[in-house]
Amino acid sequence: MSSSTTAIRRLKLLNRTLGIGSMKHRVTVIGSGNWGSAIAKIVAENAKGNPDVFHEEVKMFVSKHSGSRNLTSIINTIHENPKYLPGIALPPNLFATPSLPDAVSEASILIFNVPHQFVSNICRQINGSCLPYARAISCIKGVDVSPDGVSLFSDTIGRKLGIYCGALSGANIASEVAKEKFSETTIAYAPPEGPTEDFPKGLTPVPEELPTVDHALLKTLFHTSYFHVRVVSDVAGVSLGGALKNIVALAAGFVDGLEWGDNAKAAVMRVGLLEMRKFGKMFFGKSCKSATFTEESCGVADLITSCNGGRNHKCAMLSVRTGKSIETVEGEELNGQKLQGTITAREVNVYLKNKGLEHEFPLFTAVYRILNGETNVESLPQLIETD
Amino acid sequence: MSSSTTAIRRLKLLNRTLGIGSMKHRVTVIGSGNWGSAIAKIVAENAKGNPDVFHEEVKMFVSKHSGSRNLTSIINTIHENPKYLPGIALPPNLFATPSLPDAVSEASILIFNVPHQFVSNICRQINGSCLPYARAISCIKGVDVSPDGVSLFSDTIGRKLGIYCGALSGANIASEVAKEKFSETTIAYAPPEGPTEDFPKGLTPVPEELPTVDHALLKTLFHTSYFHVRVVSDVAGVSLGGALKNIVALAAGFVDGLEWGDNAKAAVMRVGLLEMRKFGKMFFGKSCKSATFTEESCGVADLITSCNGGRNHKCAMLSVRTGKSIETVEGEELNGQKLQGTITAREVNVYLKNKGLEHEFPLFTAVYRILNGETNVESLPQLIETD
Question: In CA terms, which of A48, A155, B279, B353 is 20 to 30 Å from A40?
Fold first, then answer.
């Protein structure tokens, strides 16, 4: 039996003994894209399966901007999201709502799963209507890199709403998770115990009548037989993996474009993985753990997936093969969408340059310079050669 | 400038100042297969390029059993090994010899690169003729697993010859290294400083007139612009990676056979990597380092390569796709050669079973049971699910 199952059983027993337990967590998913819907499917199934801890009803906020006026009522009628997750049955205890206040006002656990450009606006709309003791998990991939610093979407959400927000990231493709194909993910959750810069008075405590929101409870909410969850405490590491891997995937694509073979590609991936970790440790300090990058799904596994089949890898490979610029390939292949890797590579380079630290990250810097036409792919081994 | 280059320059200066330096290392490669010849090419080039530290002449032992009676003279005439590494120019300062005493009698650095089944016999033939202060590096992939224990080829060589032997392993394919395609490798070297069980009187010290055999010197001997070397101290970890990865590659092949997608494959690889490390730490103690598995070429990079394109992965995938046993696929695909992964999976299982530790290694155990027909591939996620 897993430790999370054990914890829940113990809780049930305790509640029965003490005659409490009437308070349960209400869970809401904010976002109804393909990843939002896939995650909503899982947490709704787990909420129903653990009635002592969670209210059966799970809400899912569907934005007016989701492109379909009556998507909410369609989802609630046919229990499917035909726009973003067609062909996948959603649990009947998942209720779509077009109203943010309705979605969040009673929820003690909020799961954010919206495109990153909407985060600020959604938080502005929520502010004031969510429970002060709510806890959140951000499933938004990546980080926000500006010339001055790197900020985590989970921190942005937490600060704007005055609640704590952790993060979920892993080697996951929404459509595969929705089809219940096996994968793993990593959740990071480590609410501060005392006052912090973001929470000068400390967090509003979760009422004692509610089950404690801890690693075991989060595992109960997210883990399934086909979606294995590991919960850690390194929010920065979990968030950085999903952004920085895209730079490495470009490098792997370049090497595949040159047909240098699997060993050269594995070498570039290894060097990239260590630069991802170094970036985390250098800019997020001791809270950022080595193991998050080298041992967890959000690190090494997500990197492997992205270097095998992701769009960054593909466009970089085609760019080398055809001799076209990566922007041209992007235009031809992605149907108007933008490559995340090239954006992140440039943002990270501006940041590193600002700090005078380009030389500490030879692979990240090489990828940027290759994208920028300042060097060629053939120089990669020489550029990443170290003492 | 690399630290190894700096070390060599300092040495040159010191020798010139002190008027010494007439003694240099003589390097011999034992073995002339494709990996032996590729490694011999590299060390001969580096010996020539560093004349203050190494004698220019590098010898390569060519066994009578290499299948070609006059291979030695052919190699020495055309500077190519047409049998095992056709089309690759070997440096003129590499001299093939059919005599083991001739190959080893003057060599202060011995590089072993023979098929593992010949190790004992070769050591028997060498014993007595090698220098007592010689140091060795084993490039023989893998480890020897018996029901009673796991032994390293480097330890076997060291014990039988009474000299210290380190190990080299990484994401390398001989033919690609020979063609100077980019890859990385890991060397482990950590001679004991005092008496040990294998060396009750301690090692015979290297004469002071010879350059110290340390990490910097080994990097000088093996590192090139296309073959990047990192030197560590964890001989067990470096050796285990090359063996245990094959079990994981079978699991990855099974998952690909089911077409479960890149994320499922990455998950299995991540779980496998951590079991490789756990195996090392459990049976080789503190000398076995986490980082060797999760950060070095011999660990994570070699694993990635083997799960992408190796024969273990391929046969496992075809076995699932066709419904044929892996032995049948092996017979059809490998032209008489044997899969290393199935042998290692069985050997490791016997060893773990002997120790009552099968349950501590759910992926290794699952692979064994799948091979043995005791469970099916579809159960993998459930079998590797942990707390």
Answer: A155
